[in-house]
Design a protein that fits this description.
single chain; alpha/beta; TIM Barrel; Non-ribosomal Peptide Synthetase Peptidyl Carrier Protein, Chain A; 2 domains; seven-stranded parallel beta sheet; 45% helix; globular; binds flavin mononucleotide
Length: 293
């Protein structure tokens, strides 16, 4: 998830039991421009493996060049984002915009597969809008072009994040192809994940929003039953990794959004957040965390 699944976040997810993690999506145009900011989003530590790099773009030749460069960094797979609904991505022919142009998507995936020395996958939505539900067609194209797996968010582009994901349709994708299919959308716990995997006969699920401020979701622990000292220990670890990765000033600043998620449901959340959001140094932040105990 853009803005969230950086190296410290992924490391924490893996440590708590997620099977693999994804990077934030990165622009293939930025990769071929050699943008250092973009490359820094792909830095990872060995403990994060298996790791999937996620890319977006709309030009086959650029995507192929970017994939050649990225494969050299040895991710476990490279995934094409075909689901992003944000206007500046989808309306420019990338992300979910590719669902509107199956032929172009086919060419792009073909180029990606040819250029890559590591497995390639794609993450899709059900279609652009309710009148163009082409998930089965897209899935078959991806399978035909050599995708190693398909990840399906059970909403259309036009839904954004509204309504609920349609898992019956995700199951239809599973039945349409013989490569692994992973479902995505609204998974709220490990138990929920296992239930959906069983019910819809899937290879796995992706967990997004519910992992924010809750790495315990991957170990099957209810966040509300996690002890204060365990919460404290995990947040300190998270901060330490953030500071290690970004340096103190940036690490502390970027931790703020995670802090808001971690303190959701805390009895004194408002007060804690006020203090947490004002912290500038690691020491200040750790002092606020001590109040959690
Ligand atoms: C802040 C945010 C950033 C996201 N960034 C990405 C992204 O970079 N790539 C992607 O495939 N999906 C991205 N998504 C979508 C999620 O991966 C996921 O498909 C969606 O949130 C539904 O799953 P969930 O109900 O488990 O969150 C993002 C979602 C959010 C809320």
């Amino acid at each position: 998830m853009a803005g969230y699944t950086d190296s410290p976040f992924r490391r924490l997810a893996r440590e708590h039991g997620s099977t693999f993690t994804y990077t934030e999506f990165v622009s293939t145009e930025a990769i071929i421009r050699n943008s250092s900011k973009t490359f820094s989003m792909l830095r990872f530590v060995p403990e994060e493996r298996p790791i999937i790099f996620q890319i977006f773009g709309s030009r086959p030749e650029v995507i192929a060049d970017a994939v050649k460069i990225l494969a050299e960094l040895s991710p476990d797979a490279i995934d094409l984002n075909m689901g992003c609904s944000v206007k500046k991505v989808a309306h420019k022919g990338s992300g979910a915009g590719l669902l509107r142009e199956p032929e172009k998507a086919k060419n792009i995936f073909h180029a990606m597969k040819r250029a890559s020395t590591v497995p390639v996958t794609a993450k899709i939505r059900l279609g652009w809008d309710p009148s163009s539900l082409n998930y089965r067609e897209i899935a078959r194209i991806l399978e035909g072009e050599g995708a190693s797996a398909i990840f399906v968010h059970g909403r259309t582009k036009s839904m954004g994040y509204s309504g609920t994901a349609d898992w019956e349709k995700i199951a239809e994708v599973r039945q349409s192809v013989s490569i692994p299919v992973y479902g995505n959308g609204d998974v709220i716990s490990k138990e929920d994940a296992e239930e959906r995997i069983r019910k819809y006969d899937l290879n796995g699920v992706l967990i997004g929003r519910h992992a924010m401020g809750d790495p315990w979701i991957f170990s099957g622990m209810d966040k509300n039953s996690v002890t204060k000292s365990e919460k404290h220990r995990t947040m300190i670890r998270h901060i330490e990794w953030m500071v290690e990765f970004y340096g103190e000033k940036m690490g502390v600043r970027l931790f703020r959004k995670h802090f808001v998620h971690y303190t959701r449901g805390c009895t004194n959340a408002a007060e804690l957040r006020k203090k947490g959001l004002m912290a500038v140094t690691k020491k200040e932040l750790l002092t606020v965390l001590d109040e959690l105990l």
